[in-house]
Amino acid sequence: MPRARTRTAVLSAGLALTAALGACTSEPQPHAAVPRAAARPDPRPAAEPLLADTIGKINSTGSAHATMTGSLGIVGQLHADGVVRYRGPQADLALDGKTRNTRTDELAVSIVNSTGYLNTPLARPDANKRWLKISQDGSDFGSKLLSPALDQLHESVDPRATFSGVEAATRIQGTAPDTVDGRPTTRYDLRIRTDQAAEIAPDEQQRERFQQAADDGERELGFQLWLDDQGLPAKFAATTKVAQAGEVSLTSTYRDWGSPVDIPLPPAEQVGVLDGLPPMAQPPR
Q1: Is the pTM of this model over 0.85?
Q2: Which of its termini does the chain have fewer beta carbons within 10 Å around, N or C?
């Protein structure tokens, strides 16, 4: 119990004696419990039932054609068309398109079994190898530099990677009828509560990422998801600050769910790694 602060007037002898005797003869009084402020309930609807249904339909349908537009940070602006194949927790994809930074360049990306392959004149391993291999745990320069942006590209085409495991930490900020490529849809504005997600995310890297966002003052992360009349994604939009890549803001538009797709690996003899800056990216001397 905190001590009483010394008062400026001298206490009378009688009061001092009474206090002393009371301290000797009375049972010690328990500290009064200080009630904790009750957590304010979140009035927004929980997104868990919606996301569980959407993720289940993605898993059962298995594939889609997709168009991706937006910014890949240091890679530049992206516009690409391709296909996505959902296999259990994995999502394989193949995209062909263009990036625009200081100039416009052709771009091809394949991601198979979580390993990325990038084909762009901006990052060729050497004159004889067109494809750059990018591994999440790679120690080469190219993997360290580009894997964060490629990971975000991967997640942006797969809403499951964003929401799986943190459905209970996600709220529906708002809904509205909308159209995507002429198709009727419902747009959902979704918010992941970072402090709650940091506690329940199943993956350690996920937990660390959400905790870092919470520590940085980002109480929520916002996403937009458009669902068609079958409950499948018609469009998904996400903006994320990615280490070493800057702000990655991508929108994926889906069509032809369930159609057969082919995602070939690049020829092995055309695949290499980047151990340093490519010649055209070397800083001027």
Answers
A1: no
A2: C
